[in-house]
Amino acid sequence: MAGLTEVPVVVLDVSDQQVEVLRIEENLRRRGLKPSETARAIRRLYELHGIGENKGGRPSKGSSSIKFPVSTAPCKQRSLSKTGSYLFTAPKETTTATVEVKTAPKKTVAEVARDAGVSPTQASVYNRLADLIGPLMQLLDARTITQEMAYGFAQLPATSRPLGR
């Protein structure tokens, strides 16, 4: 590989959810993203960190880990989904134990915004813009309408938005 015998790497022990967070945050650091791409990325970060509307920018309460019973004998572990679900198989004569599944640490809106390289206010605006329907998002991406206009449309009730929903 280009004459190298060693390659410097960083190995992280992270869950599927944490991998998704890292991927999104890295993509947000790129230049030239369309507003629709930024809006969807920030909305997904909000979802992954349990941030919902009317929570004052705080993550939802809950544990950052999930515990469930599995067999304790040597077993094979296989990821079933991006949500941290796992399948464990083991011989029938095993006892029950508890396994902890890592989830992404919860963050506030301010922390998500900092990691995305925007202000908390801008992160909230992008989160709202993710509610726009396709045609309006396309107009925003094409710079036919301004972000302020798009934000105004996104704040309207879904039944009142131009072009329907």
List the keywords.
two-stranded antiparallel sheet; elongated; alpha+beta; 165 residues
Can you give a write-up of this model?
This protein has 165 residues and is of the alpha+beta class. The protein has a domain at 65-102. 38% of the residues lie in helices and 13% in strands. It has six helices and four strands; from the N terminus they run H-H-E-E-E-E-H-H-H-H. The protein has helices at 16-28, 35-48, 109-116, 120-129, 134-141, 147-155, and strands spanning 65-71, 76-79, 86-89, 96-102. The strands form two sheets. Strands 1-4 form a two-stranded antiparallel ribbon. It has a two-stranded antiparallel sheet with strand order 2-3. The longest helix has 14 residues, at 35-48. The chain is elongated.
